[in-house]
Design brief:
Length: 410
């Protein structure tokens, strides 16, 4: 497990005022004052890689500045555990899965080991995603509020895996989902909470053009020709092979380069295998840049997104798709699959283009390459949409509101 270089970038709330206006930040402070000194524990399964870690990295310091006392714990587990939870993840997204009894045993044993290892004494405990779900066993008293923050699409889960996890979910005080369509019928309160990006983080902050150029050149990409990019972990559900195929169709008609940039997450053991599959599909095309990035590549990702002509997110399933949010914030035209939380972000023909197939993706990429004025308009409208709905300040406010609601209803 690599735990190096967290985002140490110190950003105060005042720094958001020029972007969002003073009233927005004042409102946040007033709301948060009601929770001053309250303890919050966030628990997830990876400190780096993937959208959840990305959000927690910024949420914790902002809650702290607002007077709450948050802490972030990461569960640990062996390879067998992360293989099981990755299989659960795929199955909950609706993929086929034949669960064995041992899979459930590994899941429970690792959760139990973490229950003993970690301390649970906060007023608000937020458990992220299914991996640490069974930590609810640590709840020995009724005081304190336990919330399950589910980042994945649960609309069509594999019945066996969901049947196993569901009794744990029922014991929480509430569940938070990234989109109304993701929710299940549950006997506990459900809250909508969109994921978010931090406009001032290293990943999203404005960059000097010289930095962008340096990064692009370092990776051997030609800045003078169109660049089509997908940033994602090398995961089959992100369909990197579909992206290569769409690019190959586009290349029959137009000049462009493809950048597939990703790394792995500590809780995802499949990355290397998928990268190898993509290498085979790319067949040493010099215009396909497969970049296996280390986890501390925020500036590189920021620069690659900014240097791109079009950003693609051709996922087969998706939680929310923070890479789409990041691209829209950078005013990039986005071509993305109509799955998971993507349609909440990409409103077809208004903030980007939605697609349903490799051929559809190729068609829309060609369309945007031939219509730069439309591409620019989509990007600008996308930026406004993110500003209004998917920034970290909105997310903090949502947590505070949910905590307050939870206090009033317990
Ligand atoms: N990301 C990264 N390095 C990579 C691939 C992705 O830092 O090699 C970041 C990406 O910029 C985004 C997050 O990880 O902030 C991925 O979130 P998303 O919701 O798109 O997908 P997830 O990986 O959570 O399924």
């Amino acid at each position: 497990m690599t735990l190096t270089k967290p985002d140490t970038h110190v950003i105060s709330l005042d720094a958001y005022v020029p972007l969002l206006g003073a009233p927005e930040i004042d409102e946040l402070r007033v709301l948060a004052a009601q929770l001053s000194g309250r303890t919050v524990q966030m628990v997830n399964s990876t400190a780096m890689g993937g959208g959840v870690a990305e959000i927690l990295n910024r949420l914790i310091p902002l809650m702290q500045e607002l007077g709450l006392r948050p802490r972030w714990d990461v569960i640990t587990g062996g390879e067998d555990f992360f293989e099981v939870t990755k299989a659960f993840h795929n199955a909950l997204h609706g993929g086929p899965y034949q669960a064995r009894k041992e899979n459930f045993e590994v899941f429970l044993a690792t959760n139990e080991m973490n229950r003993q290892r970690l301390q649970f004494d906060c007023e608000f405990t937020v458990i992220h995603d299914p991996q640490p779900l069974a930590l609810i066993e640590a709840r020995t008293r009724q005081e304190g509020h336990w919330l399950w923050r589910c980042h994945i699409d649960l609309s069509k889960p594999n019945a066996e895996v969901w049947g196993f996890l569901r009794p744990f979910v029922y014991r929480y005080d509430g569940a938070l989902f990234s989109s109304p369509e993701f929710a299940r019928q549950l006997p506990i309160p459900q809250y909508l909470s969109y994921p978010c990006i931090d406009p001032l983080s290293e990943k999203n902050v404005d960059l000097d053009p010289a930095v962008i150029q340096e990064v692009v050149e370092r990776f051997g990409i030609d800045p003078s020709r169109p660049i089509i990019t997908q940033i994602s972990r090398f995961d089959r559900l992100k369909d990197p092979i579909g992206v290569v195929r769409a690019y190959k169709i586009v290349r029959r008609y137009m000049d462009c380069q493809l950048v597939l940039a990703g790394g792995s997450a500590d809780d995802d053991p499949e990355g290397e295998i998928v990268l190898e599959e993509v290498r085979r599909e790319a067949k040493e095309d010099p215009d396909i840049h497969l970049l296996n990035l280390p986890p501390w590549s925020a500036t590189e990702i920021n620069a690659l997104q900014r240097a791109s002509t079009i950003i693609v997110q051709k996922s087969l399933r998706e939680g929310f798709g923070l890479t789409v949010t990041e691209a829209l914030w950078k005013k990039k035209p986005v071509v993305a699959s109509s799955v998971g939380g993507i349609p909440a972000q990409v409103i077809h023909k208004h903030t980007g283009l939605l697609v349903h197939s490799v051929e559809g993706a190729a068609y829309q990429i060609r369309y945007l390459l031939s219509n730069p004025a439309l591409a620019q308009k989509l990007g600008e409208q996308g930026h406004d949409h993110v500003r209004e709905n998917f920034l970290i300040t909105t997310n903090v406010k949502r947590y505070i509101t949910i905590f307050l609601h939870s206090m009033q209803h317990s």
